[in-house]
Task: inverse folding
């Protein structure tokens, strides 16, 4: 990479880290918040609804603004806005309405990253798929770091300290942007080799795949720390026998969550290289097909087997993301690239936010393990949708527009 590409990738990788870190602090606090606020799990989960919804539904307007004004100014707004909202969440944690409002602010500004950051990588870095893989690894590092750091900070200093920490990290990103300037590429407005009807149909089917993927992603991540806490009693008892490793059950659950997200980083690495080297539609289908039985296993496994099967599920569920993001670039014109990623994330994170209520409803109607039976059903829907995508794009030549 040349220096400009390195600066682009550094700023966007930290942005991807923070966008997911911002979203994963809350799930790690669900159980402690039930005691702090005297609410049940369903009520605490509901506090995050607007955060997750705004994280998704604002992606498209943020994408339009990125196409109009450029990605860098929007990324700077992301860091500053999410930082201030995080500090507000720390101050108002004991007031559920005010706390929920500050969480909503975190979601609103964090929604900037994906359309701005991924669009900038796809347009500004020559080895797009590999760069998307590294960027995905940074996002997974955020997924991995948030639960364990939140668990440790909460254990040592309490819940508000976790959001002070979050706010400070976001503001650090704004300083990073000032230190690492970069030049955005100009817009390539050449006509695509495919008809607009072909592209619209293919992108529409891909949107269905991505929407279902968003439900699977959000439904899993919002409940995973709590799921480990309730389903790994035997494992925690064995860990408690290690005198040199003192920890609460919540810290243990968040540490396990972080571990499986680290495995997801491996999936991101292989997904990025697979998207560059092989036919992306086939890799996309394979990764989701392999995720399905893993989701099914999570509904029945406990303790160490649960940890193992969850690692497998996150390996494929997160590993497919560079492939999916490559497909978005292949099926959209350069002049609308940020908006295309905005459309993706309004579906994956906006519609995916409904998974917060889906998880609460399934847990209340049946039991917590039934959540992953629902996730397996979602994975089956994704596999069928990718098969349809392959059918409608059979005659298309695969290269970025």
Result:
């Amino acid at each position: 990479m040349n220096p400009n590409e390195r600066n682009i990738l550094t700023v966007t990788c930290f942005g991807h880290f923070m966008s997911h870190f911002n979203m994963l602090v809350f799930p790690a606090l669900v159980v402690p918040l039930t005691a702090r606020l005297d609410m049940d799990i369903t009520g605490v989960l509901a506090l995050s609804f607007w955060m997750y919804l705004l994280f998704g539904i604002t992606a498209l307007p943020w994408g339009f603004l990125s196409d109009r004004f450029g990605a860098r100014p929007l990324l700077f707004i992301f860091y500053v806005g999410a930082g201030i909202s995080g500090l507000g969440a720390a101050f108002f944690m004991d007031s559920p309405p005010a706390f929920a409002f500050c969480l909503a602010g975190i979601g609103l500004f964090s929604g900037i990253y994906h359309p701005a950051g991924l669009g900038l990588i796809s347009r500004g870095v020559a080895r797009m798929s590999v760069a998307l893989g590294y960027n995905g690894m940074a996002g997974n590092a955020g997924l991995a770091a948030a639960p364990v750091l939140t668990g440790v900070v909460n254990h040592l200093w309490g819940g508000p300290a976790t959001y002070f920490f979050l706010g400070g990290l976001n503001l650090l990103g704004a300083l990073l942007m000032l230190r690492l300037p970069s030049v955005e590429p100009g817009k390539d407005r050449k006509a695509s080799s495919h008809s607009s009807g072909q592209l619209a149909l293919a992108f529409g089917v891909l949107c269905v795949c991505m929407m279902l993927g968003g439900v699977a992603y959000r439904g899993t991540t919002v409940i995973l720390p709590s799921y480990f806490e309730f389903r790994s009693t035997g494992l925690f008892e064995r860990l408690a026998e290690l005198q040199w490793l003192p920890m609460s059950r919540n810290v243990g659950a968040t540490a396990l969550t972080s571990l499986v997200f680290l495995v997801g980083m491996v999936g991101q690495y292989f997904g990025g290289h697979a998207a560059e080297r092989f036919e992306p539609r086939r890799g996309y289908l394979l990764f989701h097909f392999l995720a399905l039985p893993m989701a099914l296993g999570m509904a029945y496994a406990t303790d160490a087997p649960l940890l193992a099967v969850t690692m497998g599920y996150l390996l494929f569920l997160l590993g497919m993301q560079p492939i999916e993001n490559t497909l978005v670039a292949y099926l959209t014109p350069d002049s609308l690239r940020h908006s295309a990623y905005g459309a993706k994330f309004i579906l994956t994170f906006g519609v995916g936010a409904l998974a917060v209520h889906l998880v609460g409803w399934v847990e209340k109607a049946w039991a917590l393990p039934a959540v992953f039976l629902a996730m397996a059903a979602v994975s089956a829907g994704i596999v069928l949708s990718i098969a349809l995508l392959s059918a409608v794009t059979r005659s298309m030549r695969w290269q970025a527009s």
Remarks:
- The chain has a mean pLDDT of 85.
